[in-house]
Structure formats: C-alpha cells, structure tokens
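Appendix C. Worked example: ABC transporter substrate-binding protein
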Amino acid sequence: MKKWLKISVTCFLAAILIITLAACNNEKVQKVTVAEVTHSIFYAPQYVALEKGFFEEEGLDVELTLTAGGDKVMTALLSDGADIGLVGSETSIYVAAQGSSDPVINFAQLTQTDGTFLVSREKIDNFSWDQLKGSTFLGQRKGGMPQMVGEFVLKKHGIDPHADLELIQNIDFANITSAFASGTGDFVQLFEPQASVFEQEGRGHIVASFGEESGHVPYTSFMAKESYMDENKEVIEKFTRAIYKAQQWVEEHSAKEVAEAIQPQFEDTDLELIEMVVERYKGQGSFSTDPILEEDEWNNLQDIMDEAGELPERINHSDLVNTEIAESVMK
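Step 2, the predicted output written as structure tokens:
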C-alpha cells in the first residue's frame, strides 16, 4: 500500500512539473502580427522562416495578415492593427513627411531589387526598350514603388512615360492582371508568379526585368512604430534573427529546395512554377542575404521617388532606419 502511495505521489508530482513547464513555455511564446502588403513568392525568405520553424525557435508565434496596399499596411501599423508591416520602404517616408510623432522605422530588409517584370502581349525576339514608344503601358499604382521604379527605368532608357506612350496607372493592384488578360495594354508591369503564368498560358511574354534595370533598392522591408520597437526590443531582435536565418537558408539552398519549403504557402501554385520564379529572383539577386538596409540603398530609393515626383522631402537614413538590431543578430 505504501509502495503504491509512493508511486502515485511521484506520478502526481511529475505531472505537476510537466504542467508547470508547459505553462512556462507558453508564457515565453510571444504573438506577433505581421501585415504583408501582398502574398508573393517574392517574399520567399519570410515563408521559409515560417515553414522551417525559425520564428518558433525564437519563441515567436507569427500571424500573417494580407493587407493589400501600402497605405493600408501603414494604417494597420499606426492604429495598432498590426505589430510589424512588410511593405515598401517609401511608405515610412510618406508617414514621416506628414509629421508623425511616432515614426515607422525600417529594421530588416527582405528584398533588395524591384520584383516586377515587363510582359509584352506579343512575342518579341529581340526586345529593346524603345519599342514601348507609342504603345499602351499598363503600369502599377501611382506613388507605389513598382510604378516609381517603372518610370525610373523608362526614363533611364530615354522614354518619357507621360509623353512617349499611353500610361495607364488608375487600376487597382489586385485588378491589373485581369485587366491585361481582358485586353488592356500592349505591355504590363507584373509581379511573379503572374508574369510566368501568363507566359505559360501564351497570354504574354516576359521581355525584361525592372529589378535588373533599377539596381539595389530597399524594395520591401519589415518595419514597426518606434514606440512598439522601444517597448518590444527583444521581440524585434528575435524576429530579425529568424529572418536572417531564413535569408541565409535561401542563399545556401537551391531554388528547388526553397520552392519545396514554401509550397504550403502557395498550395494552388504548381511546384515547378514556384521553383522557376524562385530561380528567377535568386538569379537577379532580389532576396536580401542579410537584413541590413544600407544607406546607399536608402539614397537610391529617394532618388527614384524624386525622379517620379513623389518624394515629399529627403529624410536621413538614420532617422527612419535602424541597422543596430540587424548588425547585432548577425554577430
């Protein structure tokens, strides 16, 4: 009887210990909401961090919410509807120029080139940029990075986007693909995988990359309000460390391995297509290999905005970019 009682007490204490440890572990898990401007293979390292458990290893429970449009991501951040935003860095400049008392700070860069491609309705064997003159060009939303980079590249090739062609930029981001499919435009500026899907279906042909033409720019970054970063320094550090692990993983693995890792995020997309898109982005260096947003990239961003007539004012790199966290996790 005494032996049975001793065993029962031991089992009871063990159960209490397990429950206590589980409770402690649960307390350590921090919920983080991320508002992403679009759900795209262009953001592969973020999905690798999710699918490979890198956020989990850091004690973070990351929830992604699709918040289409840079202005909507900013609204979500400023209203505390999201903790972190994944969006173009230009949005933080727009907010700062409006005199925000709680600026949005870029703390980890995810992509370092434009992610769009020029798609022609007709097959062109020997494409040259001057072939856009006199055409109808279905561009992206005015004031957004895709459109500003698009105009920057056109001007680089001696094309005035507002005089040498018919520029359409009043169609919502979500409807650009369907607009081109229905017959609008001779050329269109598209993200992947839409560009490759059109090519596979014979409805369009990729003739150039805006990313290759525009150079390095902080195209998409993780950012948060300054107040949130001050109050959650450890969370931001853990988040950045997970992203850095994912960036290194993407850099060190093949396009096929990356595609296989992120396929659960794109269940309706064929694995071979995902691999082709990843290979294309890897080939032109679109994925940042570390989270540091360099000053020269920041200045290139503002030059592109200025060229498009969308830069409200020049803002110093140190005012809206925090590289200390990224530098710390990389040591």
